[in-house]
Write a structure and sequence with these properties.
By secondary structure, the chain is mainly alpha-helical. It is built from four helices and two strands; from the N terminus they run αααββα. The protein has one domain: Eukaryotic RPB6 RNA polymerase subunit (Alpha-Beta Complex), CATH 3.90.940. The protein starts with a helix and ends in a 5-residue tail after the last helix.
């Protein structure tokens, strides 16, 4: 049986773009020296480590607060940084302003 970690991770974070952002940010953290939150083997690709962290619920998202939480050993640093922003919801006036004026 072939394991498909990306498809499985999409069950945890169902938005492909958000999943890519989470994986990218966590991968950068590991490259920068932050310790993995799961057991690793020598030579294991970092992308596999990040996907396992998601699948093992070591990385979770709070959609209400728009934050990312890392859970596990070693404990991750807390941050007040907003991880993702709310979707832009324009009103009719702002759309007209962006599009370029009104018809007379």
């Amino acid at each position: 049986m072939m394991i498909k970690p990306v498809e499985d991770a999409l069950k945890k974070i169902p938005n492909r773009f958000l999943l890519a952002t989470v994986v990218s940010r966590r991968w950068e953290g590991i490259v920068a020296g932050r310790p993995p939150l799961v057991e690793t083997t020598p030579g294991e690709p970092r992308i596999d480590i990040v996907l396992r962290e998601i699948l093992d619920d070591c990385i979770t998202l709070d959609y209400e607060e728009r934050t990312l939480t890392l859970v596990g050993q070693p404990e991750a640093e807390e941050t007040d940084e907003t991880f993702f922003s709310e979707a832009f919801k324009p009103d009719a006036a702002s759309v007209q302003e962006i599009v370029g004026g009104t018809e007379d």
